[in-house]
Amino acid sequence: MTLRSTLAELFGSAFAELGLDPTLGDVVPSQRPDLGQFQCNGAMAAARAAKRNPRDIAAEVASIVEADARIATLEIAGPGFVNIVVTDEYLAEATSLTAGDERLGVSPIDGEAHWILDYGGPNVAKELHVGHLRTAIIGESFKRTLRFAGARVTGDVHLGDWGVQMGQLLVEVRNEQPELIYFDETYRGPYPEESPVTIGDLQRLYPISAAKTKSEPAYAAAARLATVDLQSGRPGYRALWQHFRDVSVEAISQVYDDLDVGFDVWLGESSVHDRIGPMVERLESMGVAEESDGAVVVYVSAPEEEHQIPPLMLVKSDGGYAYATTDLATIEERVEDLEGSGAIYFVDARQSLHFEQVFRAARRGGIAPDPFVLEHAKIGTVNGLDGTPLKTRDGDLPLLRDLLADIEAIAIASMDAKGLADDYPAAERSAIAWLVGMAAVKFGDLSNHRTSSYIFDLERFSSFEGKTGPYLLYVAVRITSLLKKAGEQSIGPGPILPPARDVERALLLKISEFPDAVERAITLRAPNHVAEYCYELSGAFNRFYEQCHILSEADPDLRGSWLAIAGLTRRVVVTSLDLLGISVPERM
RNA sequence: GCCCGAGUAGCUCAGGGGAUAGAGCAACUGCCUCCUAAGCAGUAGGUCGCAGGUUCGAUUCCUGCCUCGGGCGCCA
Fold it and tell me: How many domains would you assign to chain A?
């Protein structure tokens, strides 16, 4: 129960008392802080249905609500706005309640639901590149936020580990090292535990094999054959493939670890391979899958639909499965094995048609029962300064590893230039630089809406000032330092007193908005609401800090109250940052 | 051609049917004898792409148009 929702309930029951819809009593933070702290706009909406003057309704609602001891003033303004100011006593009381709640006022959501989140999608043999950045950051944040609200969540990396690229790699490795035991069809194992290839080898070979597949039909045929052999279980191929997967997972998880992005399961395309055959057969026998031009497809548009969308390709005319097939089988896995109640895909918006097709096919084929939620949370692209997807000078997608190293270097340069933390141990200093860089990247990403493509400008990261991740770290660190100093002077927090200054009231009101930001982030699948909130809260604290000099305050009760407020602010900031996947250093 | 998304301050972007549309950067002006100036305060900057519609009220919802980006059966 939050301050805002308490008021909404209060107004709701007043509307109900007048025989009007209680949802009209919704209360929101005021858009005109000069006129009030909160506002209720329901009277204007009610006026039409009730065929009455909105100001009259507002007046009647106000006269009921006014009696409540928590309300300081109510004013009717304009066409029928009710501007609300709560008493300082109640504001203090509500803040104490928040401080006493482990979830800081966020109400727990349905703990029965089990959400499967898909925000990985890296491929074996390919390093994580900038295209993986947004999905990882946003998905991770959403996972943490859902979990904070008490939901059961499983993050699946969904590795691309089973397509024709695997066949291509097998062929290319054979070209380079034909003597390897894995290619000897007469050999009966066991195979070496040591991988014959490194992740570096795979990254080198992958583009070569991809290029040859394009230009040499015979090579492409060999790759397809190898893929089929792999998938049908040829032991040498399986063993070699396992090495491909292992070395790739090691490299991939290293970068995810650096990003502090985690997955609960490392499933992938290969883990649903055995499901595909039976699934296709079942869809065919149901009449959902049909033969068309030598391929097997699922029609996903009803004939009468005005805008037809193309059918989903299940089996290509060469007998191979399409990647939509794998995605369909993955849904089945998520329903049956993972026992999910829904799956949310944090994936590039450009794949929206693909997901539309897959989701429709999953419904038609009964793979996803009706209550199972299927949702594509569209992610915008990371663009360069020219507004097109970010590329290196060679035209490749920049590797995440390189990008993060650049950011770290910028953070160090920035610290050097400002002479920050120059008396700290070198190891701590570089740890701080890393956290500052990560905060900059993540906040820069998360403060944009999920669906919008934004311009990633390294230059802009060279200054960690203004609305940036480091600004938020700075607030948390400032408070840590403040609390430490207070402790050294044996000053402790006390009960939160009714606020007497505007900056203090503004801070307490902002603290009370945390649950609304979290709720919005969850329902809209949009962590930018938490990011935006955290920035606003930080600003409110900095203004408070500027005007209320805590440690030199003579009144011990006031000092204790302010210290408690500072401590609570820190908790909310650190919690918000944690929901964004951003870690805070002890000092900076 | 059809579908999806975007168009808001010089730049990068927020914005929940409500009042006077916000932030950061860049520009200009102040504030470190005082808990971290990675900070705070202030000035300036807008026909919210265009035209209609719904509504007491539209940047927000609907329709059309313009511009840009993306997607559209055998790549994944």
Answer: 3
A420 beta carbon < 7 A from strand B? yes
Structural domain harbouring A370:
114-157+272-383
**Same structural domain, A315 and A333:** yes
How far apart (Å, rounded) are the C-alpha atoms in residues A25 and A7? 8
User: What is the per-residue pLDDT across A321-342, written as a single tens digit (0 to 9) for each?
Assistant: 888 999 999 999 999 999 999 9
Which segments within A21-110 are labelled E, that is strand?
27-29, 38-40, 71-77, 81-86
Cis peptide leading into A369, omega within 30 of 0?
no
Strands A382-383 vs A373-379: parallel, antiparallel or unpaired: unpaired
Taking CB atoms within 8 Å and a gap of at least 24, the contacts of A421-429 are A421/A587, A421/A588, A424/A587
The spacing between the Cα labelled CA in A168 and the C1' in B23, in angstroms, equals: 50
Could you tell me if A80 and A43 are in contact, meaning their C-beta atoms sit under 8 angstroms apart? yes
H-type helices in A33-87, by residue range? 42-50, 54-65
Q: pTM to 2 decimals?
A: 0.96
Q: Give nearest nucleotide to A545 (CA–C1').
A: B35
Q: How far apart are CA A45 and CA A54, in angstroms?
A: 8
Final residue in a domain of this structure, among A383, A402, A423: A383
Phi, psi of A569 (to 5 degrees): -60, -45
Residues 228-267 of A with CB under 7 A from strand B: none
What is the ipTM score, two decimals?
A: 0.96
